[in-house]
Every structure is written in structure tokens, then in C-alpha cells.
Amino acid sequence: MPQKGVKIAKPEGKLGILLPGLGAVSTTFIAGVFLVLKHGFAPVGSLTQMQTIRLGRRDEHRAPLIKDFVPLASLSDLEFAAWDIFPDNAYESALKAGVLGKEHLLLVKGELEKIKPMSAVFDPSFVKNIDGPNKKEFKSKLEAANLLREDIRSFKKSRKLSRMVMVWCASTERYVELTAAHQSIEAFESGLANNDASISPSMIYAYASIMEGVPFVNGAPHLAADIPALTELARQKGVPIAGKDFKTGQTLVKTAVAPMLKSRMLGVRGWFSTNILGNRDGLVLSDAGSFKSKEVSKKGVLDYILQPEAYPQLYGSLYHKVRIEYYPPKGDDKEGWDNIDIFGWLGYPMQIKINFLCKDSILAAPIVLDLALFMDLAQRAGMRGIQEWLSFYFKAPMHAPSVYPEHDLSIQHMKLKNTLRYLMGEGLITHLGIEYYDYWGRAKKGK
Ligand SMILES: NC(=O)c1ccc[n+]([C@@H]2O[C@H](COP(=O)([O-])OP(=O)(O)OC[C@H]3O[C@@H](n4cnc5c(N)ncnc54)[C@H](O)[C@@H]3O)[C@@H](O)[C@H]2O)c1
Q: I need a labelling partner for 319 at 20 to 30 A (CA). Which of 106, 110, 148, 330 fits?
């Protein structure tokens, strides 16, 4: 396909990152950016900072860093703001989260202490097991949205920002089904005015973000912007949106291992995934409503990857179970176990066991950074609505109703890189490879 590239505005001026939730993920992300900028730490896990991208044929050996290839905001141009129900500043909150060591936090204490959370829009019927004093008072959900919009505007003005991005890093809300109030912009706006019970705080933040022309990302599994009213609003307002649920630990592994099994036509009888974790996220997820949101997002991936309807003999009777157990001694150190009962030639059984000892927020922080930078790029490139090319970062990627979500990690990765090539007018890479050999099978000379 001939490529022209897309007109992309330069990343001039400062980029504000608005974070609903100033807990483990947000503080690990913000502290990390300052540690990278001012103390030479490596931004491990971030594609925008560390990864290269191949351009052209394999014998051209062109592989610049992504950040040198596409015009991204630089880390020194980032400014941060957050909302939380707890009044702790980013330093205090990071200490409590216990992800980064005090010796590292002390290096950026001054920068972190300046980030004090704005009062939150909170509704205890959506998040159980925690509550705090730093909340906005409002009579209607529309008023709540307007208060958030004022916060967004005053952040922009006070820091002299040229652009902003919002990334939801607050707690997981309980599971909700789509209701009439979610179906159209009109129904949603009248639901805001009439305090419709099915409109959650994350939807109010997403609405405020989109109305202010600010790209919105949802790092948690609940719906937020993933409702017809808000996807349409984003499209109409020319705002990119993406979600849901950062793909960090067990699901990252699952979406790499499951495609491997399917590509070799190995059967799977059972997949039992369990997690133990002891952070505030784990406490919130020990409520059945919030767990249900997470379970739905974690469980969907195998059905799409393995296609039991196309391969009933291999995957038709797969038993898939996901558990999350709150276990305080673990803190932010999550332990994920996967027991996979597979079968091979003639149906002979085998097992794969994976024990992933990970740190949730260490895996999530670079994702927040990449998403913020790529969403800002998308907006400057005039992309609007659902950003499916960022599926790579999500457990339950948002997608148009006409297509199914793409969960296979390597396909998601290829999709992301091809989108960058497309934006910059470079040829897409198909990995076909026959162009390197002549009719007789001899290697062709490189360019
Ligand atoms: N860490 C990971 O690997 C990972 C992966 C996927 C998704 N997530 C999701 O990211 C989110 C953040 O995770 P975390 O470990 O930082 O959790 P956390 O509990 O440490 O932080 C969340 C913060 O959000 C605040 N909060 C709750 N409701 C709010 C509201 N309405 N407005 C503003 N603040 C609010 C809480 O007070 C808390 O401080 C969770 O929803 C989690 O499920 C995390």
C-alpha cells in the first residue's frame, strides 16, 4: 500500500497528565518519570523510551528508536495532576503504597510533595471497602462533571499547558451492565442531570475529559468511556479514547502463551489462574462487585484467542477459572499462578505451570507513560474515537461493535508498530519474506 503519512502537529509546549487516583500505579509512574529525568534511572518496560522500530526491508538495517521516529512529547515537558479521595500528596501516597523504596522516593521527594490530589468525584455504591475525606460535594452528576471540567481548565491555565491527557488509575468500580442512560449522548446527559444510578464516577471523569477535548484512557476494567454515549461523544468531539484494564501480569503472559498453543494446534482442557496480592487494589477487588469487573476483563481473552467454536476438539470443553485473593502480607508484590492442562498428539495430556512473582505497579507504570504519550500523538495526528492500535496495553481492548477485540500479544504489537509506520508514511511490514530470495531460492543481494 503506498504511504503518504499523516499530518501530525509538533509536540510543542507542555503536556499535562491528569490522573484520577493517586495510588500505587500513579505514584510509581510519576516518581519514575522524575527518577528517569533527574537521576538517570532506565525507563524499563516503556516502548516509547526504549524500543526500536524496523523500517523497510530487513537488509536495509534501519531501526531507529520509536521516540526518534515519531514526534512524541519529551519527558521534560510533562506536568502532573491527580484526584484522590485521600488527601495524601504523591510522596506520602507513594510511601504508603510501598512499591518504590524510600531511598528512591527521597531523591524526588520535593517534586512529589508538590502533587496534592484535587478532591474526587466518588460514589461508595461503585467502590466498596475504601472511603476517604477528599471528596467533592455536588447535587447532581452533571454538577460533578462541571466541577471536574473546572479542575481540568485550571490545571491547564496554571501550568500553561498546550495539551493534556487523562489516564484513569483509580480503583476498579463494580460491574455494571449497559443501561438506557449509556446508549446515546442525549440519554447520558439527561442521566447526569437526573442522577441516573447507572452512571459511575469513572463515566463522569471520562465525560468531563472528552468535553474538554482531552484524550481519555481507562486503566481499570469497568466500562468508563466504553459505552455508546461516550464513544460517540469522543468521535464527535474529535477526542481519542482507549481502554480497558492495563495488561500487566498474568494476562500479559496468557496472551503470549495461548497463541503459542493455538498456533501449534495443541489442545487445552483447563486453565486455572489465581493471584494473591495485598495492596489497596487487592482490597477493593476483594469486593464481589469490583472483582466481577476484573473477572470479565481477565476471562475474555482465551475465548477470543483459542476460538473454541472453530476448534471444538481442542478448546470446546476448556475449563477457565480466574481467582484473585487479597492477602495483605504480599503488599504490591503479586504472585500469579497458572496451571494449564494441555493435550497433544493423540490426546496425550501434559501440563504447563507458571509462577509469576511480579510487582504490579512496576509493570503498570511504563504502560501509563506510553499510553499518555501515544494518546497525545494520536490527538495531534487527528485520530478520534477508539484507538484500537493501542490494544497491546489492555486486557479488554475497546473495539468497534462490528469487530472482535484482538488479544494476541504479538499481533497487537505488530498492529501498534504498523500504525506508527502508517502515520509516518513508511511501508507496513508483513513479514512475508519471499522478496529476499530469487526463483531458484538463492538469496537476493541487499540494497
Ligand atoms: N497495577 C497493575 O498492574 C494494574 C493492572 C491493571 C489494572 N490496574 C488498575 O489500575 C487501578 C489503580 O491501581 P493501583 O494499584 O494504583 O490502586 P490503588 O488502590 O493503589 O490506587 C487507586 C486510588 O484511586 C483512589 N480512588 C478510588 N476512587 C476514586 C475516585 N472516584 N476518584 C479519584 N480517586 C479515586 C483510591 O483512593 C486509591 O488511592 C486499579 O483500578 C487497578 O485495578 C492496575
A: 330
Task: Check for a shared fold between 14-246+362-423 and 250-358.
Answer: no
- pLDDT tens per residue, range 287-301: 887 788 777 767 788
Alpha helices in 201-319 (DSSP H): 201-211, 228-237, 250-263, 280-285, 288-306, 312-315
The Å distance, Cα 440 to ligand 1 centre, comes to 59
Query: How is the chain split into domains, by residue range?
Result: 14-246+362-423, 250-358
| Preceding amide of 157 cis, omega within 30 | no
* CATH code for the part of the protein at 250-358: 3.30.360.10
Distance 173 CA to ligand 1 centre (A): 10
Give the fold, CATH level 3, of 14-246+362-423.
Rossmann fold (3.40.50)
373, 43 Cβ separation under 8 angstroms: no
What pTM does this model have? 0.95
Which of 22, 281, 322 has most ligand 1 atoms within 8 Å of its beta carbon, as the pocket-test mutant?
281
Report the nearest-CA residue for atom 30 of ligand 1.
122
